[in-house]
Amino acid sequence: MGMPITVDIAGASGAELVDAVFDYFGQVDRRFSTYRTDSEISAINRGDLPVRDWSGEMMEVMALAERTRSQTDGFFDIRKPDGSLDPSGIVKGWAIRNAAGIVGRAGVADFFIEAGGDIQSCGRNASGLDWSVGIRNPFNADEIIKVVYPRGHGVATSGTYVRGQHIYNPRGLDGPITEIVSLTVIGSDVFEADRFATAAFAMGRDGILFLEQTPGLEGYVVADNGRATPTTGFGAFCQS
User: Fold this and answer.
1) Percentage with pLDDT > 90 across the chain
2) d(Cα 182, Cα 223) in Å, to the nearest integer?
3) Phi, psi (rounded to 5 degrees) for 163
4) pLDDT tens readout for residues 53-75
5) Nearest to 148, CA basis, from 157, 159, 160, 138
6) Distance (Å, whole) CA 202 – CA 235
7) Which pLDDT tens digit goes with each residue over 18-37?
8) 86: which strand partners?
9) Three-state DSSP class for residue 160
10) According to the model, what pLDDT value does residue 157 have?
11) Contacts with 109 (C-beta within 8 Å, 6 or more apart), sequence order
12) β-bridge partners, 215
């Protein structure tokens, strides 16, 4: 998937289960990667695969993407300026949530899955403590500026401080998003956090207001001047 992935199953060896999770992520990559010429999404973008031949997973993701576009008033849009489709902004959280389902169905109650900064955890770590997530200072990679305790919720961070300008505002295609550099979202699960983190970042400074007004979401944004702004309920997730 072009990103580091961590799977931590607490209190058990879980080698076979970890292998199953990584096998699943490999399947997702082979289907949805825009960097692979042999993926299903690449075939769709070349015009080689009509809608009637799309896989069930592709149809599901496309439907979720359209729902998210509607819920965010168009700020989330997988159609790029050149007309091609790039579902990356929704696939990662969707895949992590599905991977968590694989672990949960195996009867494991304590685990942590992270891919490219998006996280789903459940239960407690090997020390018997709540899983914790550090939010990195976008201006200093070695500094953690906030610690979050998700307690079963999903956490996703969007930003430009690692990958550069890879998120765009569908309503303002001429200019990059520069007024904010990092935005973390906590949702009911990682899929909800991930899809709205992408959309909220695309909104720029208005993204934190969108999160404040959307039930079930909390957020923490770092602006280009270094100032951090949380939603009113975000602090509840920072208490150990």
Assistant:
1) 81
2) 7
3) -100, 0
4) 999 999 999 999 999 999 999 99
5) 157
6) 23
7) 999 999 999 999 999 999 99
8) none
9) coil
10) 94
11) 122, 123
12) none
Mean pLDDT for all residues in the chain: 91
Half-sphere exposure of 32 (CA within 13 A, CB side): 26
Residue that is written with structure tokens 């610690």 in the block: 147
Q: For residue 121, is it left (φ>0), alpha (ψ between -120 and 50) or beta?
A: beta
Which residue segments constitute the domains of the chain, with CATH numbers given?
5-238 (3.10.520.10)
The two three-digit tokens of residue 73, written as one number: 């008033």
Q: Which residue has the higher pLDDT, 5 or 168?
A: 5
**Which region among 15-24, 157-166, 191-200 has the lowest average model confidence (pLDDT)?**
157-166
pTM beyond 0.70, yes or no: yes
How far from chain centre, in Å, is Cα 170?
19
Residue 238 neighbours by CB under 8 Å, 6+ apart: 146, 147, 148, 149
If you search the block for the tokens 């825009």, which residue do you land on? 34
CA atoms within 13 A on the CB side of 3: 17
Residue pointed to by tokens 């949702």: 187
Residue listed under structure tokens 């965010």: 72
